[in-house]
């Protein structure tokens, strides 16, 4: 079974600085997908970035990028030039095949002005 | 519709009453998922639909919980004889199948409070 672990319950960063959120996972499959979701107070889960396990190149989406270390089963999210609107809960998640999306426990990110 | 719609947005119910939560997925999305999120916690999988059938019900916490999906579209999650520990946000998500790994589109959830 897949498991996803986020070891940082809370993180904070100064506005315009860079912050990295950690995530590790465990899977027996070689083909899977990894995601970072953002959950603002509105509760809706918003997809931030996705990574396909068979791709070695790290995914990037504007100010968001990942450091995907397949051998170490690590998938961290880097947010550059942090903005006040980035404040939210961030969830790391994994899926393999048609199985259910498995989430980590979440990291609450605070942006200090 | 353009997104996943859930109703009601908030529900307060008395302990012991039954509740129904509704999810209207994106048109054409054949896969539908229900998750539960307790206060300050991650998302806990409840049940997965492919079309109208539920290949994975492993996350339903007790036989008080049931769900159905009709016409390959709308799904209803029913909680019978609600308990205070059922208080949580119930999130629904849908996605198109085909192994594209594009993840899910989530609704805004229903916040259930059992008093």
Give the helices and strands, then pairings.
The complex is a heterodimer of chains A (113) and B (115).
Chain A: E1 3-5, E2 10-14, E3 19-21, E4 24-26, E5 33-39, E6 46-52, E7 60-61, E8 64-69, E9 74-79, E10 88-95, E11 102-103, E12 107-112
Parallel strand pairs in A: 2-12
Antiparallel strand pairs in A: 1-4, 3-9, 5-6, 5-10, 7-8, 8-9, 10-11, 10-12
Chain B: E1 5-7, E2 10-13, E3 19-24, E4 31-37, E5 43-50, E6 53-56, E7 65-69, E8 75-79, E9 88-95, E10 105-106, E11 110-114
Parallel strand pairs in B: 2-11
Antiparallel strand pairs in B: 1-3, 3-8, 4-5, 4-9, 5-6, 7-8, 9-10, 9-11
Describe the structure.
The complex is a heterodimer of chains A (113) and B (115). Chain A contains no helices and 12 strands. Chain A is 0% helix and 51% strand. In chain A, β8 and β9 (74-79) form a beta hairpin. Chain A has strands at residues 3-5, 10-14, 19-21, 24-26, 33-39, 46-52, 60-61, 64-69, 74-79, 88-95, 102-103, 107-112. The model of chain A has no long low-confidence stretch (mean pLDDT 92). Chain A is globular and about 40 Å long. In chain A, the strands form 3 sheets. In chain A, strands 2, 5, 6, 10, 11 and 12 form a 6-stranded mixed sheet that branches. In chain A, strands 3-9-8-7 form a 4-stranded antiparallel sheet, with no helix packed on it. Chain A is an all-beta fold and 113 residues long. By secondary structure, chain B is mainly β. Chain B starts with a strand and ends with a strand. The mean pLDDT of chain B is 91.
Question: What labels describe this entry?
Answer:
heterodimer, A: mainly beta, six-stranded mixed sheet, four-stranded antiparallel sheet, B: 115 residues, 50% strand
């Amino acid at each position: 079974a897949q498991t996803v672990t986020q070891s940082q319950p809370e993180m904070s960063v100064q506005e315009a600085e860079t912050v990295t959120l950690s995530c590790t996972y465990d899977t027996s499959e070689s083909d899977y997908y990894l995601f970072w979701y953002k959950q603002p107070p509105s509760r809706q889960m918003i997809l931030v970035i996705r990574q396909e396990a068979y791709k070695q190149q790290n995914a990037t989406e504007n100010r968001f990028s990942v450091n995907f270390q397949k051998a170490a089963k690590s998938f961290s999210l880097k947010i550059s030039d942090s903005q006040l609107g980035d404040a939210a809960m961030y969830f790391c998640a994994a899926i393999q095949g048609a199985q259910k999306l498995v989430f980590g426990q979440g990291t609450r990110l605070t942006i200090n002005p | 519709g353009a997104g996943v719609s859930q109703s009601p947005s908030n529900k307060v119910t008395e302990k012991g009453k039954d509740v129904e939560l509704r999810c209207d997925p994106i048109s054409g999305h054949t896969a539908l998922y229900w998750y539960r999120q307790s206060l300050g916690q991650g998302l806990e999988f409840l049940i997965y639909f492919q079309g109208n059938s539920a290949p994975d019900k492993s996350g339903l916490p007790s036989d008080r919980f049931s769900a159905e999906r009709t016409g390959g579209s709308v799904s209803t999650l029913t909680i019978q004889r609600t308990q205070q520990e059922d208080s949580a946000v119930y999130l629904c998500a849908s996605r198109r199948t085909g192994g594209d790994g594009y993840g899910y589109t989530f609704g805004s959830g229903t916040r259930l409070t059992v008093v």
